[in-house]
Specification:
By secondary structure, the protein is an alpha/beta fold. The chain folds into 2 domains: 175 residues, Rossmann fold (3-Layer(aba) Sandwich), CATH 3.40.50.300; 145 residues, P-loop containing nucleotide triphosphate hydrolases (Rossmann fold). It has 11 helices and 12 strands. The strands form 3 sheets. Strands 3-2-4-5-1-6 form a 6-stranded parallel β-sheet, with helices on both faces. The protein has a 4-stranded parallel β-sheet with strand order 10-11-9-12, with helices on one face. The longest helix is centred in the last third of the chain and has 15 residues. It starts with 12 loop residues before the first helix and ends in a 10-residue tail after the last helix.
């Protein structure tokens, strides 16, 4: 099941205030998980695209695939941060090769990107950034120079990249902070919201208004996947027709897929996403979807299983690790009773 965008009529007044901010300034809008940042980013991009070239920039490929149908229905152009750079080099510099940092899994050299694109000139009426707190600031500054206006949707508590914990202050050097922060959580149940708040080190997440089951913490024998996969299979077989997100560390994604796919494929699809592998992924299918802690941002599922939660420690930055726990807990589980 892909992203479901609500009708405009169902947006609440604070969301409509944000959507209709004037375009004489660059804006940064804060909002916690479930407050509608991505919905508003899509609507604002679609609204501005009627008047000139507009681009919606998102964190990564899984999020772009997840949003694809909703975005296309609004007539928006949507690109990942890295995809935008690749296209810019091809279209504006006539180059196929983009600068990368050696030894960093193909990570782009955004400082060099900014230098190379510095004098390209204005190419967009407007650019919209979703998850702007995790956008490299050099890229944000580059796109801002190439756009008449930009709008950034952010949540500092969801920063999951090391070295970016002051990104909101940097974004404010380019943008005016909207006076209408997003304050209502339309996605999560109260129980999920309250559990995730334990890991929230900044302002507390927006209040959720729908009740649901409490999240469970289940301990399995360390380094033993048998009990874990048995539990996951039993859970999945009890929830056929639903979308079940499984979040784990990068190195365990393939292992879980190899264990689960033979056991579940007769009853439901089992898919995995790995950054370095070019595999097809269909968010319109229900069933099991396996992601790493680094690729799950912004997605939604009916149910979430965080496999090997202890493995979230994938950086040397304690604040980032807490943010990753916060994001994987609160952003993921949809409140299906909620029309928004």
């Amino acid at each position: 099941m892909g992203f479901i965008i609500p009708d405009y009529a169902s947006l609440d007044p604070e969301q409509k205030e944000i959507l209709n901010l004037n375009v004489s300034k660059n804006w940064v809008i804060q909002g916690g998980p479930g407050t509608g940042k991505t919905v508003l980013a899509i609507y604002r991009a679609a609204q501005l695209a009627k008047y000139g070239k507009t681009v919606l920039l998102v964190y990564n490929r899984p999020l772009k695939l997840f949003l694809a149908e909703a975005v296309e229905s609004k007539g928006c152009e949507v690109k990942t941060y890295n995809e935008w750079v690749t296209d810019a080099y091809k279209n504006y510099l006539g180059r196929k090769k983009v600068p990368r940092i050696s030894g960093k899994r193909g990570q782009l050299d955004y400082a060099q990107v900014e230098k190379d694109l510095y004098n390209v000139g204005e190419k967009y009426l407007h650019a919209i950034f979703d998850e702007a707190q995790d956008c490299p600031f050099e890229l944000l500054r580059t796109v801002e120079r190439m756009s008449k206006n930009i709008t950034c949707f952010v949540d500092p508590n969801q920063e999951i990249l090391p070295g970016k914990l002051e990104s909101l202050d940097m974004i404010k050097t380019l943008c005016v902070e909207a006076q209408y922060p997003l304050t209502r959580n339309f996605r999560n149940t109260k129980q999920v919201r309250d559990a995730s708040a334990i890991f929230c080190r900044g302002a507390q997440p927006a209040i959720a208004f729908f009740n649901g089951p409490k999240p469970e913490l289940i301990e399995f024998p360390s380094r033993d996947y048998e009990d874990l996969t048995d539990f996951i299979c039993d859970f999945c077989e009890d929830h056929i027709g639903d979308t079940i997100g499984i979040i784990t560390d990068y190195n365990s994604v393939s292992n879980l897929y190899d264990d689960l796919e033979p056991r579940l494929s007769d009853t439901m699809p089992v898919q995995m996403f790995k950054t370095m592998k070019k595999t097809d992924f269909d968010f319109e299918q229900s069933g099991v979807q396996i992601f790493s802690f680094g690729t799950m941002k912004g997605l939604e599922f009916d149910h979430v299983i965080i496999a090997r939660i202890e493995a979230v420690h994938t950086s040397n930055d304690e604040d980032i690790d807490f943010n990753r726990l916060y994001v994987v807990l609160i952003v993921k589980q949809m409140c299906t009773k909620n029309p928004k």
